[in-house]
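Obj: model holo form, ligand = iron/sulfur cluster.
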Amino acid sequence: MEHFQCRRCGTCCKQPGFVYLRDGDAVRLAAHLGMDIYRFTETYCLLLDRKHLALKKNPDETCLFLGPEGCSLYPARPEQCRDYPVRWKTERSAGYCEGLKKENLSGGRGYTLG
Ligand code: SF4
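Output (holo structure tokens):
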């Protein structure tokens, strides 16, 4: 996976599931959007199980911040997005991620989460 190259196809941004925010993500994203942290979390975040902050998403599960040019938060994107698919991926990832398809064709190896 050391040679993995994102093809910027944006398919991972359309998958079901949540983007959980880790320490520092919300502060960085709020600053990127020019919002204070309270307004950012109220507008764009959900609190799951009363303890996990995650980004809200569109009704069709696509990311709210996916635009015609790709991720509109790219320089400030959450850690979960930065880590995909090098540090984590799912069993379905190889079926849609253009970068992984290319990696698999060239004999690269990675690891899979659930
Ligand atoms: S699915 Fe893979 S190649 Fe496409 S944007 Fe996401 S990480 Fe990049």
